[in-house]
Amino acid sequence: MPQSSQNTIVQMNSSIKLRQRVQTETSARDEPNVSLHPQWSTKRVPVRRNYSQNIYEVNKNENVGKVESEVFVDFVTANCQILTIPTKEEVEFFKCPDIPFPWDRVLGVRCYQTEVSKCPICLEGLTAPRMGKCGHIYCLPCIKYCIRDGGDFHKCAVCFKPIEMDDLRRVYIIPSAVPTVGDEVTFTLVRRAKQSIFPKAVHDTAKQHRFLSRFDLLDLAEQLTQIEGEIRALESYAKDYESYGSSMQAISAKSSIRKLKSEEKKVRCEIETLPPSDFTLDVESNNCYVYYQGKVVV
């Protein structure tokens, strides 16, 4: 083959390769979703983070665990009713709904539910229900076993958030119904002082009315009734496990019963010694709001 023909073929091959290379680069530029293998990548692109992620990282580094715990408590206060005995030092928590309420001041949680709740561990009805900061409700024996007898497993069985025995709060489950067209609704006249924390019924006939509010006063009589019911439920629980031959669960339940009986004596003493109070904070009785709140007749 003549030398000129060989040179022509080489030039044609070079032109074809160059054209293919230009087409490949153009298609890769036009298609933003094309991803190359790391070994062909000549430039590393830094990971982009939005502003909220950066703020969260800063807060997380400065206050480890504080941001998450406040989010949990906000979830509970938004979906349940916090029971507490207020003090004058905590007035700001009751005035501003955006301030996270300290969990160590929560004495109980009242939940209004339209369905029967079950423990996510044993899948049975709740026995002495308890709630953690995350808002999940368990049987006291079940969550106690997970925390104390589960080794290093000190986390919620549903969301795997950290949980300890000191974080558990008593749960008062109130069956309720969602009002529909045709339901009979009863309204109660209530009054609340302008600097007061909780509303009160105007007439004594509405003592059993539970008001819809973020916080409510812990009723010692209601607490005593709840403790007595928990003792009976745990005694039945321990008896059942003894008949099944499971002594560990029975021993744990009896330990909880002893603590509940000690708490029962303490509550009875408080009922006899503490004077009644409407928990108004230095206000005149005439300076108040008067309004109606409704309750569905089930």
From TrEMBL:
Pfam families: zf-RING_UBOX. The keyword Zinc applies. GO terms for molecular function: transcription cis-regulatory region binding; zinc ion binding. Its main location: cytoplasm. InterPro entries: MAG2/RNF10, Znf-RING_euk, Znf_RING, Znf_RING/FYVE/PHD, Znf_RING_CS. Keywords: Cytoplasm, Metal-binding, Zinc, Zinc-finger. This is E3 ubiquitin-protein ligase RNF10. It comes from Hymenolepis diminuta. The lineage of its organism: Eukaryota, Metazoa, Spiralia, Lophotrochozoa, Platyhelminthes.
